[in-house]
Amino acid sequence: MSATLLSVQTLNGLQLGVLLFLVAAGLTLVFGVMDFINLAHGVQFMIGAYLAAMFTALTDNFFLGLGLALPAALTLGLALEWLVFRHLYARDHLDQVLATFGIILFLNQAVKFVWGAAPLSVPVPTLLSGSIQLMEGLRYPIYRLAVIGAGIAVALLLSLLVSRTRIGMLVRAGAANAPMVSALGVDIGRLFMLVFGFGAMLAGFAGAMVAPLVSVEPGMGDNLLILTFVVIVIGGIGSIRGAFIAALLVGLVDTLGRAFGPLVLRLFLDASAASQAGQALAPMLIYILMAAVLFVRPAGLFPVRR
Predict the structure, then answer these.
(1) Quick check: pTM over 0.70?
(2) Residue-range definition of the domain harbouring residue 130
(3) Domains held by the chain: number
(4) Does residue 82 contact residue 144 with C-beta atoms inside 8 Å?
(5) Which helix (H) or strand (E) holds 185?
(6) How many other CB atoms sit within 10 Å of the CB of residue 130?
(7) Contact 203, 97 (CB under 8 A)
(8) Domain-embedded: residue 254
(9) 161 within some domain
């Protein structure tokens, strides 16, 4: 296990972590403030990637495409909230799960109808292309570092927004006791719409940022949604700080476990058995982490006080 490989995989884990945070931040607020289970949040990640691909192709500039994709993702999120989701707030969680699963099926088919079933690609912007030397023998793509930096910057801005502004105060109060906030005269419907739209925009931003790194295709957000729920459970429902720390933990554990799990097992098993066991255990590590955290702290690392 070389120091260079460890550094590369650690950076890859941080990149995955900040992307998970961008998706989990909106979802944990929706779940914490509105007590609403939105399985379609991963689809909004996919829509953000498709919007970035479309606008980048139209403008021939990734940054212009990103600037157009964000308000488009926000508008779509607000439209979904107005058309569908607000009618489900008073329903039980099973109804919410079934309805949002239907939204997943509908939007996956919708993107096939609009953009086709073939994967799309988004070129890495010229300004952020190439790699930079971080240490002796280690060069890392500039764009991946930019993704990490953008995720950390959004986390800081979101933390300031939630903790230092009036809107953030209302969001925190809504997460703690939404009926009381409504009784004090706050338009809880407008607050819910704001939280939902902002969460959709964050998920779209994550999809747009990852578009130059992966193929943009239908269903690309479905697997990410599972990791996002793991992040929310570990961090504590409704907690932005918990979502950030848990996202980094999940990203690092998942990436490093897949990269080095077989190597560690070779200390105890022969090469063939270690490879097979490592491949089988690596996808389970984040769930083992979740179980360990819940055993010690059943409400998550940083639960919202109620």
Answers:
(1) yes
(2) 3-218
(3) 1
(4) no
(5) none
(6) 11
(7) no
(8) no
(9) yes
